[in-house]
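re: that chain from earlier
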Amino acid sequence: MFDRARVVCLDTVMIDFTLIVTALPEPGGDSLSSQRLVTAGGGYNVMSAARRQGIDAVYVGQLGTGPFADIARGILVGDDIDIAVEPRGGMDLGVCVVLVDDSGERSFVTSPGAELTLRGDDLLSLTLGADDVVYLSGYNVVYPEVAAAVSEWLRDVPADVVVAFDPGPRAADIRPSIMALVLERTDWLLCNASEAHLLSGEVDASSGARQLRERGSYDLVVVRDGARGCVGASGEGVIVAPGFDSHVVDTNGAGDVHNGVVIAELSRGTVLGEALLRANAAAALAIEILGPATCPIRDVVDALLLEQPRAVTQL
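^ sequence. v structure.
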């Protein structure tokens, strides 16, 4: 599978304006930023993580035209990420202002743009292979401008193509009918503990993963649980993979990094327990650096695994 594996990413790419602040300003107030960064974010986080583990990536999204689109396109091309959709004029790419406080927690203000002009015919022109993993997030189906086109296309994705879905922080805002369509076609459900609680009603990450796996038709459920690591539930049972020590600078994109590494490692044929450990290690390293797409290359992950040995637990 590894030789031809690709991450086919629908998760929207935007431009992130990241600012480090001591604390969020009060209404009407002002906060001074100590650092700033302008780069591609969103779906790029997942694709760059997969690329840095040696897996090909394809972006299936509309970048539009304009200065922000040019920044994103240059970054994607620089990482050898294929762009499947031809740009249309008239609108530039959207932006997201990311405020990161002293604890590393991030807050978003999003201004959508050309990424919401993806059309059904853009998706119909896409050719998928049996070794592809189609990745999408809640952002693909929370906006009515693209939700119908994406969810309808998803129903016709061949059964031998893996679909991975992360509901994301706006999961509660997705129309129930759309969410049901997406979850029905999902093979790998990737979420954090809050999203697992929303979908399962379970507070504990392990219970949530098990509950979601038993209730749905998913081959795999992964629940990210912050510094504690993550839980994976599959047909072989439930695995708990511990986290790694790190100095938190910026948590923006940590979940995307985790998702990208899980997808890449499973595509390489790595066993689930090791894939989860590697994803935890990569995310721990990523949050030590300012910016959304800070996944390390595979050799750096290897070094952390040697420095901080960890073992998974089978429940």
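The chain is about 35% helix and 25% strand.
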